[in-house]
Amino acid sequence: MVSRSYSNLLDLVSGDSPTFGRGGKKIPRVATVAGVLSELDDETSNSVTSDAPSSVSQDRMIIVGNQLPLRAHRSSDGSGEWCFSWDEDSLLLQLKDGLGEDVEVLYVGCLREQIDPSEQDDVAQTLLETFKCVPAFIPPELFSKFYHGFCKQQLWPLFHYMLPLSPDLGGRFDRSLWQAYVSVNKIFADKVMEVITPDEDFVWVHDYHLMVLPTFLRKRFNRVKLGFFLHSPFPSSEIYRTLPVRDELLRALLNSDLIGFHTFDYARHFLSCCSRMLGLAYQSKRGYIGLEYYGRTVSIKILPVGIHMGQLLSVLNLPETDSRVAELRDQFRGQTVLLGVDDMDIFKGISLKLLAMEQLLTQHPDKRGKVVLVQIANPARGRGRDVQEVQSETYATVTRINETFGRPGYHPVVLIDTPLQFYERIAYYVIAECCLVTAVRDGMNLIPYEYIICRQGNEKLDETLGLNPSTPKKSMLVVSEFIGCSPSLSGAIRVNPWNIDAVAEAMESALIVPEPEKQMRHEKHYRYVSTHDVAYWAHSFLQDLERACRDHVRRRCWGIGFGLGFRVIALDPNFRKLSVEHIVSAYKRTKNRAILLDCDGTMILQSSISTTPNTEAIGILNNLCGDPKNVVFVVSGKDKKTVTEWFSSCEKLGIAAEHGYFLRPSHDVEWETCLPVTDFDWKQIAEPVMKLYTETTDGSFIETKESALVWNYQYADPDFGSCQAKELLDHLESVLANEPVSVKSGQHIVEVKPQVSSSLRSV
């Protein structure tokens, strides 16, 4: 048996059309020959996929994440066999609801537990047949370097704005950890290769653990339909650019067809990095943001993930939840509960929240005995000294507050650092008057969403709490402005968590807001959260991924580059690769040849510090000019004095200076002008304006030519230079409106030159 992708390869090589359809039974695990077609130069075999579109609609999605949405444990019957079940809390499992019942979903990822090598084959077969999961078994030492090393010590802190200023802050860059990260991503790519049907399947990769995976998949299959979603923040360019492998990660992500972010800020930072480090510009067209990358359009998706409504509502209906709500009602009777639910890590701002509570009780003595902060502290996902420091500071602050403001029967802060059942956490949501999320940086944080749904409650909980079911529900949120869910919660009180006074004031405000306003805020939030759930998010992402991949079959693709520098060049179907043999043959047959050569950026590389053609280029030009059958012209944007100096040794070379305004067929002929322009008075108007923008834009300069004035901002800050260029263009068009000139913008330039009459253009 061979894989469908391998069979398509055989069909392509033999010249036959692929005959596999979707009607037959899938081959779940196959041996795959990787990267064969990337070595072929034939026009019909330049990609691993076929040129013909599939006649059957897509019905399979391969979801790739660091961890499979499974729980595992050894059997308790003494056999020692592994038992597996779905992890209902996993986002990867929950998003399946938005993909439609007709979409088959396969999962690729790691297991949380270490599986002995002797058991791996049996476990893999069981997971594939029972759960449609393909496990990636990573050796423990390699996984530790990958996850606890590069992911948690370098990427995760950096993406949360922590620079490695000392070994204790995030960890210095370690090349061996980076190599482990790449190796694990390669293993994931091999696992995807086992099950993918590249012409038809969609692949959805999740989070920063697998940021270079798109390159490995694109290298195997040039037209793979590939989406990536980043669940963490993406830092500003000033932070991200400190990463030694910054370009490799950006280029790897750009091998996706669609890149998703929770907020516009995260997307804006990514686009800024692409602009500043790779020189790529983005554009918004009909509501969609796209980056042009070697002929491919990489789409950008901005949509925060939602919660799983069905799971929350089912837990709300459990009798255990109702019983726990009744217990908490009695425990906190006569008191107002403020609730915090956070992981015990350095970015969740637990200590800042506690300090704000201390400030509230200090400034408002009337709140003592009446207000309680319940802080649920989940175990940290990472490990290290920073986690221990957070724990120590949290315990010390809680003890101090309770000793200062507490009394018999009243503890101002209730810290819960033991694992809770989901229904218990839900019960705390139900009885809390306000939810506080003061993280200093968080990719998304779904705690406020869960709180909103739980405060909506149900009839049974209303009865338990003694509420009138017909009375509108109410809730209050105090959220950090640095978390991903903040922009979608317009009715929340947004705070800077570092400002302890402001957080304390927000807590006070949340307590005294009139009931009708609490109800309106809750209604607004509930309407958004209940309609923008995880299914909506997944469905929307799949729709955009389908749109982004719509033109795959109509594109000709060539893979170029080595390692993580690999990328695909996508060209129009009518494009034909230039054949060197054909050109040489035609060159030898002809008796008269006109050869036009570009100069700037061709003979003189833009990345070179040298501003003159090298001796090799001059020698080639003289060889071409030495053939009497050849007429050779070099076209340059430089002035005639400069190009005369550059090509002084090429006596038979024709030169077009200032983009053809001046022409000289050979060295011993005088320069000619193509336009009889005598009026250059407009320069006296344009030049002072350009000088003004040059003075205010560091790195810009003016090129003064006989026929034109050019403002160049190639070496200026790209964002500021582009902004200034737009202003300069408008300014010049205004002051030169009555002059016989044209004002145009180009790549890093704004140029003013004489107008060309319609009669001359037609000539």
From TrEMBL:
UniProt keyword annotation of Glycosyltransferase present: yes
Keywords of the record: Glycosyltransferase, Phosphoprotein, Transferase
Protein name as catalogued: alpha,alpha-trehalose-phosphate synthase (UDP-forming)
Residue ranges that the Swiss-Prot or TrEMBL entry lists as coiled coil: none
GO cellular component: cytosol
Similarity comment: In the N-terminal section; belongs to the glycosyltransferase 20 family.
Biological source species: Vitis rotundifolia
Pfam family, one: Glyco_transf_20
Domain of life: Eukaryota
UniProt cross-references to InterPro entries, sorted A to Z: Glyco_trans_20 (IPR001830), HAD-like_sf (IPR036412), HAD_sf (IPR023214), Trehalose_PPase (IPR003337)
Magnesium as UniProt keyword: no
Enzyme Commission number: 2.4.1.15
Catalytic activity from the UniProt record: D-glucose 6-phosphate + UDP-alpha-D-glucose = alpha,alpha-trehalose 6-phosphate + UDP + H(+)
BP GO annotations: trehalose biosynthetic process
Uppermost EC category: transferase
GO molecular function terms attached to this record: alpha,alpha-trehalose-phosphate synthase (UDP-forming) activity; trehalose-phosphatase activity
Gene3D superfamilies xref list: Glycogen Phosphorylase B, HAD superfamily/HAD-like, Trehalose-6-phosphate phosphatase related protein, domain 2
